[in-house]
Amino acid sequence: MTIAYLFGQPVTDLPKDLFIPPQALQVVLSSFEGPLDLLLYLIRKQNLDVLDIPMLQITEQYLGYINQMEARQFDLAAEYLLMAAVLIEIKSRLLLPQTQPENEEPEADPRAELVQRLLAYEQMKLAAQGLDALPRAGRDFGWAYLPLEIAQAQRLPEVQLADLTQAWLGILSRVKHNQNHQIEHEAVSVRERMSAILRKLNAQASCAFSQLFQPELGAAHVVVNFIALLELVKEGLVRVQQENQFGEIAIVLAQNNRQAVA
């Protein structure tokens, strides 16, 4: 018979020469796990009403269990001794004569707090038993693992008539952007445009920047003309001037080039 649990392990025989610290010992009186559990067992065993506990009878039975444990030289947990003191106090208060004035409210039943604790404990115990009765892995059943490779057929998307129409319209729209055209190469020489600019400046000494370009001849003519002007500036043959801020840019021959031309 298990009389206690020491660090979670059941103790059936108590060595007489072994000291066990009280805080390391969990008392089990006939499989009772605490004083409330013992009281509830005594009440339910005799079919007593929890709301009207006969304190004299219950207290005597409870103290009888305590005396049995003390006879075995067993150190009781403090909670069992505390409950014994509570029962003795309640029994004493019930035995005292009630001398209460008429104008005051009657004194509360000394058993009320104990009854509430017993009912709450009973609810928790029943809930714990219900949870323990549920199937538990490792105790009531074991898990079986069987790896399976399930081949699932690939489902292709269903193509509707509207999808085909949309795809066809997309192809037609791309065809419109892919049109053939012939590119004609226009030969424009940078050196030729440099000579043309110098001839123009020799004839009128200076000219406006905008007068060097003829947009109606095409983009290639404008770009090559601009490159030619940059080359002349780089070689020091012409100078770029601007008298006022945001004013017209003037292109003039360099002084040494003017003398050489003269």
Automatic annotation (TrEMBL):
Signal peptide: none annotated. It comes from Kingella oralis ATCC 51147. The keyword Cell cycle applies. InterPro entries: ScpA, ScpA-like_C. The lineage of its organism: Bacteria, Pseudomonadati, Pseudomonadota, Betaproteobacteria, Neisseriales. GO terms for cellular component: cytoplasm. Belongs to the ScpA family. Component of a cohesin-like complex composed of ScpA, ScpB and the Smc homodimer, in which ScpA and ScpB bind to the head domain of Smc. The presence of the three proteins is required for the association of the complex with DNA. Keywords: Cell cycle, Cell division, Chromosome partition, Cytoplasm. The keyword DNA-binding does not apply. This is Segregation and condensation protein A. HAMAP family: ScpA.
